[in-house]
Amino acid sequence: MKSNPTILITGASGMLGRALHRLLNTHPNHYNVIGTGLTRLSVDHYHKYFPLPPSDDNSTAPSPTTVKLHHLNLLDHAATTEFLEKHQPDVVVHCAAERFPDAFEKNAEESYKLNVESTKHLARECLRLGQEGGKKPFLIYLSTSYVFDGGAISGDFPPYHPTQSKAHPLNSYGQSKWDGECAVRDILNPSESCDSLEIDETHGGGRGIVVRVPLLYGEDCMDLKESPALEMMNVFLPTNEASPSQKKIDDWALRFPTNVEDVAKVLKMMIDQLVFPSESGRFSAGTYHVASPHGTTKYHLALLQAKLLNLTPDLVEQKIAGDDSGPPKNSAPRPQCTQLDCDNTWIALLKNNESFKFVPLNAGMEKALKGFPERFL
């Protein structure tokens, strides 16, 4: 009897890793799902503010409320090799990363090792396992829209095509994710090239998939700091300060906040086409974009969130103000707009020129902030 394909998710304690783990777990007869983490090894997939949804589909089952993850230090390459040999994954979804640009700058050496060296090692091990006669794992590597510069230096302006637009990261985080992309291509997709900051994927083939995403947020977060799309609401939490100072919020950079539940659904579509290929062929290795089309600045996003929470205009004006002067001072440099062109993704995954239906920003934010402020205290 053929066993279910094994899907290994690194960083399964993070926003996107949780969402994908949760989604795949609703199909226990289809996948053997293995999630890894470093320090947070018990994860709540559902809670009071993000309840288990009702199911009227016999093909799905509820994901466990609390999930235990496997401990894996990706910086320990020997342990990573041993883990892969033991579990023999069909697909590795590499979500683990230092994803905050400012945090990256403060701990650049360790962050680079995680974002680049661990990716390089995973790619090499996926290649080796296939060459030694075992399973030939696919590696799905999560990258970022911050590999682009918004045209500031390159003169290449958005929306950005996955292969025809030139990468030109402005900060160390973006550079590390680009270097990780190049490692995946060089090792698993040898017909591709990163030499000119453009990508030649005309030959197809390979077992590496790069998925770039923009600013993400989760509906199940219990800590506002987990997402830059939510953390602005910290200023509205109860405080002991008599009159806290007004917070300046970026009103310069255009962001495209994307719900991790949506990204997880697209990743599942990719996984399904990799491990259950149809008669029309298997999903091709390459570079893809997944991003909501709903653009906004962080300041206008904060105004939307305040409106959803029924905060009074006077309180909002007292607490926050827009700042359109450019990237935040004393922070890693950021591009003004890195909108991603997702057409190639939908052509590869969907039929009849359809496009994916993203959760509207209002609806997603309403769920993400449900139970405010008690939920985040």
How would you describe this structure in keywords?
single chain, 377 residues, alpha/beta, 7-stranded parallel sheet, globular
Describe this structure in words.
With 377 residues, this protein is α/β, with parallel strands linked by helices. Helix content is 31%, strand content 14%. The chain is built from ten helices and 13 strands. It has a seven-stranded parallel β-sheet with strand order 5-2-1-6-7-8-12, with helices on both faces. A two-stranded antiparallel sheet has the order 3-4. Helix 1 links the parallel strand 1 and strand 2 (32-37). Helix 1 crosses helix 6 (260-275), helix 2 (77-87) packs parallel to helix 4 (108-131) and helix 4 packs parallel to helix 5. The longest helix is centred in the first third of the chain and has 24 residues, at 108-131. It is globular and about 65 Å long. The chain starts with 5 loop residues before the first strand and ends in a 9-residue tail after the last helix.
Give me a quick take on this structure.
The protein is of the alpha/beta class and 377 residues long.
Topology:
Elements: E1 6-10, H1 15-25, E2 32-37, E3 42-44, E4 66-68, E5 70-71, H2 77-87, E6 91-94, H3 101-106, H4 108-131, E7 138-144, H5 172-188, E8 208-213, E9 216-217, E10 247-250, E11 258-259, H6 260-275, E12 286-289, H7 298-308, H8 313-319, E13 320-323, H9 343-349, H10 361-368
Parallel strand pairs: 1-2, 1-6, 2-5, 6-7, 7-8, 8-12, 9-11, 10-13
Antiparallel strand pairs: 3-4
Helix pairs in contact: 1-6, 2-4, 4-5
Helix content: 25-40%
Low-confidence stretches: none
Task: Give the overall shape, derived from the CA principal axes.
Answer: globular
Q: What percent strand?
A: 5-15%
